[in-house]
Design brief:
Shape: rod-shaped
Structural class: mainly alpha
Strand content: under 5%
Order of helices and strands: HHHHHHH
Distance between the termini: 153 Å
Number of strands: 0
Length: 163
């Protein structure tokens, strides 16, 4: 069984949590107290180095600022502009190809059949009566002739009676 403090317990103690059991254990256990002191030493060393870097002279920060500005202004931005221009051209080309409607494939056989049909229709329109209705037209003409003769005969008979 391990009677030593865990890393979490030592870290909490170093950060300021003062648990009575941890304090008593650190007073009696040499191994845990050495580990706790090492952690405190590392934390204070880190704190001191951060303060030393942060408390540099104003001239250091001025030189840093100047160096950053020089790097930014000296940077060649033209390749980036060309990259954007090339990307825009590619987008434009893709948009043109996507919005164009392709011509449907031409079927010359169906075009020839369509032309033949149109010629037949044109021929039928040139005739007085379509070929398919020619017998019906003959029947209608004969009927009209018969009716006309009947009407003429009736008119003549009325005229004769009315005299």
């Amino acid at each position: 069984m391990n009677n030593h403090l865990s890393e979490d317990q030592i870290t909490e103690w170093a950060l300021g949590a003062r648990d009575e059991l941890v304090i008593r254990h650190l007073e009696t256990c040499k191994a845990c107290s050495v580990e706790a002191e090492e952690l405190l030493g590392a934390l204070s060393g880190f704190r001191n180095s951060v303060r030393a870097v942060a408390e540099r002279e104003e001239s250091f920060w001025g030189r840093q600022q100047l160096a950053v500005r020089e790097r930014i202004s000296g940077r060649d931005w033209y390749p980036l502009h060309w990259a954007w221009a090339a990307a825009m051209v590619m987008v434009l080309i893709v948009a043109i190809f996507l919005t164009r409607t392709p011509k449907p494939p031409q079927n010359y056989a169906s075009e020839d059949a369509d032309k033949a049909l149109l010629q037949e229709v044109q021929g039928d329109l040139g005739r007085g009566v379509p070929q398919a209705l020619a017998p019906a037209v003959l029947i209608a003409e004969e009927r009209n002739a018969i009716l006309t003769n009947e009407v003429v005969q009736q008119t003549e008979s009325r005229l004769k009676k009315g005299r």
